[in-house]
Amino acid sequence: MENLPIGKAFTLMEPGPVILVTTSDGRKDNVMTISWTMVMDFSATFAMTTGSWNHSYSALLDTKECVIAIPTVDLIDTVVGVGTCSGKDTDKFEKFGLTRVKAGHVRAPLIKECIANIECRVVDVIDGHGIVVLQGIAAHVDHSRTEKRTIHAVGDGTFIVDGRKIDRKEMMRSKLPSGI
């Protein structure tokens, strides 16, 4: 085995999919790219890392709500573009041709171009680690989309694309405790 600088160890453990997170402070909608995400247990509870360096962070904390929009690989350039400019001086919806769709439970908009959108409420913030915990309250999926592969950030400017699915549901069903 070859040694890897410890500062690059994070690139070995790819997180959940890259997401777009929309917020609305009541005056302006914004969208930010978040590359470090995870599902928490077998529920609609999610965690993401962000902080005051993101323009949307204050709206997220003030309103305690957002939308997780899940893009597919055909939106990779949009996802990277959204993540490399600030909503402070850019209308990212307009600049990247993203279509706002009114959400049913939160002020932040859904993004039509994404394969799925999850309306969320902020339930916890772990300041020392920049972790925001979200509770999903409504989910929307566009089954008509041809492209279904999501993208995952390695952390150094490279991405992994979901590939072939392998079905082991039956095998796992027999090993899981009842009720899951």
UniProtKB/TrEMBL annotation:
Entry-linked Pfam families: Flavin_Reduct (PF01613)
Domain Flavin reductase like stretches: 13-153
Keywords: Flavoprotein
SMART domains: Flavin_Reduct
Origin: domain of life: Bacteria
Family the entry assigns: Belongs to the flavoredoxin family.
Protein name: Flavin reductase
